[in-house]
Design a protein that fits this description.
Elements (H helix, E strand, L loop, with lengths): L1 H17 L3 H13 L3 H8 L5 H11 L3 H12 L6 H15 L2 E8 L5 H15 L2 E8 L7 E5 L2 E4 L2 H13 L1
Parallel strand pairs: 1-2
Antiparallel strand pairs: 1-3, 3-4
Helix pairs in contact: 1-6, 2-6, 4-5
Length: 171
């Protein structure tokens, strides 16, 4: 389904760009998605609720014309369930355009700012992109940290070192 979500994201990105609202539209779309809950998805997926009723409901709560029209297209094509995936794909498109790389740093406790800055600067230097770091805490990590980005993992945890030692001893 990611391919379909990407196609919709590209289409709405193209429209938002023409209106010079590509960044603003991301905020509008993300705000809408964050405001949804399980009942919202159930409502828009329910087969006994007509397409017209679904569209009328949107017209009452969505004030952004581009977002409203986009959501109506999703309803017409029975793709409303993809709205969250489309939002993520839209963000990826915008991040790629702006040369932003999203990085997750996982450790057992928050890292000091200077350590995060070192990680950010190394990645910025190596990949020539702006780096946005999200910190995640994993209490299972004994020490060290793991960096995850774009399908890559740099594992500098003690857990990894212990597993490597264990593997070499059992060979």
């Amino acid at each position: 389904m990611t391919g379909i979500a990407n196609q919709y994201a590209l289409a709405v990105f193209s429209l938002a760009s023409k209106e010079k609202r590509d960044e603003e539209f991301l905020t509008v779309l993300e705000t809408f998605v964050k405001g949804m809950n399980e009942n919202t998805y159930k409502f828009f997926a329910h087969p006994k609720i007509s397409i017209l009723e679904k569209k009328q409901t949107l017209e009452k709560v969505v004030y952004d014309k581009l977002l409203l029209n986009f959501l109506k297209v999703l309803i017409d094509n029975d793709r409303f369930a993809l709205v969250e995936a489309i939002s993520l794909e839209y963000k990826n498109i915008l991040d790629n355009l702006n040369k932003i790389m999203n990085v997750v740093v996982v450790s057992n406790k928050p890292l000091k700012k200077n350590n995060l800055d070192k990680i950010k600067n190394k990645l910025k230097e190596k990949y020539n992109r702006k780096i946005q770091i999200e910190e995640t805490i994993d209490k299972d990590i004994i020490g060290g940290f793991r960096i995850e980005f774009e399908g890559n993992v740099i594992d500098e945890t003690i857990n990894k070192q212990l597993n490597d030692i264990k593997s070499s001893l059992t060979e």
